[in-house]
Amino acid sequence: MRRRADDEDDRRHARELAVQERSQGADIAETIRSNKALAAKLEVNGTPAFVLEDSIVQGMMSAYQTAGEIT
């Protein structure tokens, strides 16, 4: 039984390393830089933020408030 737990830990660790390696790629870094530049241009400085047609809605909203923004 212990061997099975060790195998699961090994697989989990391998997945974490793979994700970490992919996240350090040049294409990911460029996407992050591009997103940060767009956020700065739109003056979005937190999450959540939604771009709805011609307006930007920032901050937490209830489902009722969200429905009001999109109708």
Q: How would you summarize what this structure contains?
A:
This protein has 71 residues and is mainly α.
Task: Explain what this protein looks like in three dimensions.
This protein is mainly α. It has one domain (2-70). 65% of the residues lie in helices and 11% in strands. The chain has helices spanning 2-23, 26-41, 63-70; strands at 49-52, 55-58. The protein has a two-stranded antiparallel sheet.
- Coarse shape: elongated
What kind of oligomer do you see? Answer: single chain
Which class best fits the helix and strand makeup? Answer: mainly alpha
Radius of gyration: 20 Å
Number of strands: 2
Mean pLDDT: 83
In the sheet with the most strands, the strands line up as 1-2
Total tally of structural domains: 1
Distance between the termini: 56 Å
Percent helix: 55-70%
The stretches of 5 or more residues where confidence is low (pLDDT under 50) are none
The share of residues in extended strands comes to 5-15%
Main sheet attributes: strand count, strand direction, barrel closure = 2 strands, antiparallel
The sequence of SSEs as H and E is: HHEEH
Helical region count? 3
